[in-house]
Amino acid sequence: MSWQPNPLEEQRLDKLARLREIGIDPYPLRVERTHTTHEAIAAFEATTEGEPVKVIVCGRLLSVRDMGKTIFAHIGDESGRLQLFLRRDDIGDESHTTFKKLIDLGDFIQAGGEMFRTKLGEVSLHVREWRLLSKAISPLPVAKEQEVDGKIVRYSAFTDVEERYRQRYADLAANPEVRDIFRKRAHLVSALRRFMDDHDFLEVETPILQPLYGGAAAKPFTTYHNQLKQELFLRISFELYLKRLLVGGYERVYEIGRDFRNEGVSFKHNPEFTQLEFYAAYWDFHDVMDFTERMVAYAAEAVLGTTDVVFNGKMLQLGQPWLRITMRDAIKHFAEIDYMDYPDQASLAAAVRKIGGEAPPGAPWGKLIDGLLGDFVEPHLIQPTIIMNYPRDISPLAKAVPGDPLHVERFEFFIGGMEMGNAFTELNDPIDQRERFESLQEMFGKDDEERNPIDEDYLRAMRYGMPPNGGFGMGIDRLAMLLTDSRTLREVLLFPHLREREE
RNA sequence: GGCCCUGUAGCUCAACGGCAGAGCAGUUGACUCUUAAUCAAUUGGUUAGAGGUUCGAAUCCUCUCAGGGUCACCA
After folding, report:
1. Residue A42 CA distance to nucleotide B33 C1' (Å)
2. A5 phi/psi in degrees, rounded to 5
3. Is the pLDDT of residue A411 over 60?
4. Which fold has domain A178-322+383-492?
5. How far is residue A36 from each of residues A41, A135, A473, A476, measured CA to CA in Å?
6. Is the ipTM, as predicted for this complex, more than 0.95?
7. Tell me: the pLDDT tens digits for A237-250?
8. Cα A412 to Cα A474: distance, rounded to the nearest angstrom
9. What are the extents of the domains in chain A?
10. Quick one: CATH architecture of A7-140?
11. B chain positions with any atom within 7 Å of a protein CB
């Protein structure tokens, strides 16, 4: 349904008309701005008292305290907020009345004058002239704030989770700490990129629309190209394309981008999510472990200035050497079961059920083990922990542990009780790779969407020779959760997907 | 998808079978150093939607919609 103005909006539409009647363009083209609010305050404080500091600032009107012939107001811009001091004697009758009658909270205005300090000590702008820059028709949720013992207490803040996500623009406008989350996220991404670049990795972009999907076990989104008359998939990982580039001669490549998985949504799952993957020739998974520790510590330091991060009430020490433990030992410790005592699917399934774990019928041996990890181990992995040596049957792209046919050189790392990333010593034997793909075909049913089609082109690339390499993938959204102490993924996604609603 | 919880004014919330209310925002008025400004007056509602029970429903029941939590799912 199209927009029907509510009574408050009707009032503002009326003000809009009255502004035009008195010759004021409520949406002018040009703006004069000499300072941000932060710069204006800094300029004043850098000057000896008495020396005039003339500024023109712009921003959204956040609060108004009308004292009659004097008006105090605050405007906010991205740099901060600034109090305006408007007197009728300074700006004139007409301008004074216009401000009182036709200007609302949420409007953008421009104000010029000299900086000064009020009797109560707040650095403010003594306004000589002001101008409307953009009229707000819909009232923005306005919160009132009070400082109590140094802490900001907010009244009537905009907190409705659903509306905050559906109208993220209003959320951002009303809640400065939400703006801060996404500023941190941006810093995180640029820090990761800088770290990769500084270590001689080449940033590349590989197809999002792919004729085949692979590199992970996940259900894909499908789409269709009309002119090519071809079904296409949105990528579920970057892996197979990035490793083709190692065949081509690049030794270190990475990509930061979006993956799409047509699966359930939860506090740590979203249908599209941002991933960092890299592949480094001549590295094995031990090299990747070392690099991962340094990368995460670097990112935390860059974003927060520290590697000690508070998440969910617990202090995470990202800067310490991380605990490294094999999957078998971790499960022995937390689930008190040695899965090597149950070398086949049936006996392991029985053992898992006996200790109260999940053992879906038909789940492969390795998947049962991964289930044990998820149920019994993962929730305990609050401090950064590397779990290494994964079952071979659920890891088709990793090289076997020497002398151990059941495990591969693969690790996942966990922080704050969440899986953050996945890495391995990459399989580069094309014959072995084909066998792995083929056994996967048998393992997953024909109708199972997680069954990856065999990527013949990838095998062809590998037959030309692929250098030994270590690969890595990490969920950036989850890392952003950690660094912003957010309890759900949606808090770190600007526009999380919500079910469509009839308006 | 199962189970549990939630949906009331622009925002934040009360009322829990008996007249739909408060604070903020808005409107009108007073006030030339206020900052949750203050003071006085005042407007604003399809109680998410549809149906049912009842003399009477925001409140109880059923269904639908949306959101949250949790479980399932998720290398």
Report:
1. 21
2. -60, 135
3. yes
4. BirA Bifunctional Protein; domain 2 (3.30.930)
5. 9, 20, 40, 32
6. no
7. 999 999 999 999 99
8. 9
9. 7-140, 178-322+383-492
10. Beta Barrel (2.40)
11. 1, 10-13, 23-28, 30-38, 43-44, 65-75
